[in-house]
Write a structure and sequence with these properties.
Elements (H helix, E strand, L loop, with lengths): L3 E8 L10 H21 L4 E3 L28 H13 L2 E10 L3 E9 L5 E6 L5 E3 L6 E3 L13 E3 L4 E4 L8 H9 L4 E6 L7 H4 L2 H9 L2 E6 L1 E2 L9 E2 L3 E3 L5 E4 L6 E8 H10 L2 H4 L14
Parallel strand pairs: 1-2, 2-3, 9-10, 10-11
Antiparallel strand pairs: 1-16, 3-4, 4-5, 6-7, 8-9, 11-14, 12-13, 14-15
Pfam family, one: CN_hydrolase
Keywords: Acyltransferase, Hydrolase, Transferase
Protein name: Acyltransferase
């Protein structure tokens, strides 16, 4: 593996009104994101990550069975198959966040990891599922209506260019999984998100740089942009970024524009930081037992 890896982060608006049928959302969003993936690859991106459930609006703003229609099998669904072919054509690694259906009616918030030859390497299922209102209009992050908690642990995928971990949106508030991704060998952790101003923006540039420093790896944070009708529950404030193991921002996107954010990660910096800060050597897991006890 080369020491310098070029990373592409894709942030985009949803262009279709939420009242429109699911198939139209998927069609338009997939068309847009395929175009943006091609743009990122043309600019040299070797690993590309899309935003959380990229092929539609953030439908968890409401609780409607309509949106179950957007779920697909992973990896055998049409979207993963399409982007696997695209990864093979372009020679890029893709982190593809989709809505996963298992069996008749079990659903997960999932990201498929596809290698640069189009091989499906595996998936991460979002572990921490929020259920919280936003504002006074009845909208919110009503994710427990749509998703079961993940059950595949915190896998790390050995891709053609780097060892990749995935954390999805709300997961970023929990340091435990972030540490496990590091212990499992991640060199870079991607966090595809959908998060609005007024609720968590003040944490956006605090938590994930802290994860990067505590674990000695890069973190790539991706957020969509714009407001989404008919809910209009807040502004998705973009600002997708790559942060290095020292907590320094390598690149950051705009607040309100469709954009391919490009940045380079340097594997040498990971070694340098871990040789300086021996957090893995000095951790004391035998003293942390109370952390995994259930509260009464």
């Amino acid at each position: 593996m080369a020491d310098i890896i070029r990373v592409g982060l894709i942030q985009a608006k949803n262009d279709v009104h939420g009242d429109e049928p699911v198939h139209l959302h998927k069609e338009k969003a997939i068309e847009k994101h395929e175009r943006m993936v091609r743009e990122a690859a043309a600019k040299g991106a070797q690993i590309i990550c899309l935003q959380e459930i990229f092929y539609g609006p953030y439908f968890c703003a409401e609780q409607q069975t309509k949106w179950y229609e957007s779920a697909e099998e992973v990896p055998n669904g049409p979207t993963v198959q399409l982007f696997s072919s695209l990864a093979r054509e372009l020679g890029t690694v893709l982190i593809l966040p989709v809505y996963e259906r298992v069996g008749i009616g079990t659903y997960y918030n999932t990201a498929a990891v596809i290698d640069a030859d189009g091989t499906y390497l595996g998936k991460y299922r979002k572990q921490h599922i929020p259920h919280v209102g936003v504002g006074s209009s009845g909208c919110g992050f009503w994710e427990k209506y749509y998703f079961k908690p993940g059950n595949l642990g915190y896998p790390v995928f050995e891709t053609a260019f780097a060892k990749v971990g995935v954390y999805i949106c709300y997961d970023r508030h929990f340091p435990e999984g972030a540490r496990l991704l590091g212990l499992n060998g991640a060199e870079i952790v991607f966090n595809p998100s959908a998060t609005v101003a007024g609720l968590s923006e003040y944490l956006w540039k605090l938590e994930q740089p802290a994860h990067a420093v505590a674990n000695g790896y890069y973190v790539a944070a991706i957020n969509r942009v714009g407001t989404e009708a008919p809910w209009n529950m807040g502004e998705f404030y973009g600002q997708s970024y790559l942060v290095d193991p020292r907590g320094q921002f390598v690149a950051i996107g705009s607040r309100d524009q469709d954009e391919v954010v490009l940045a380079e990660m340097d594997r040498n910096k990971i070694h340098e930081v871990r040789d300086t800060w021996q957090f893995y050597r000095d951790r004391r897991p035998e003293t942390y037992e109370d952390m995994v006890k259930l509260l009464p």
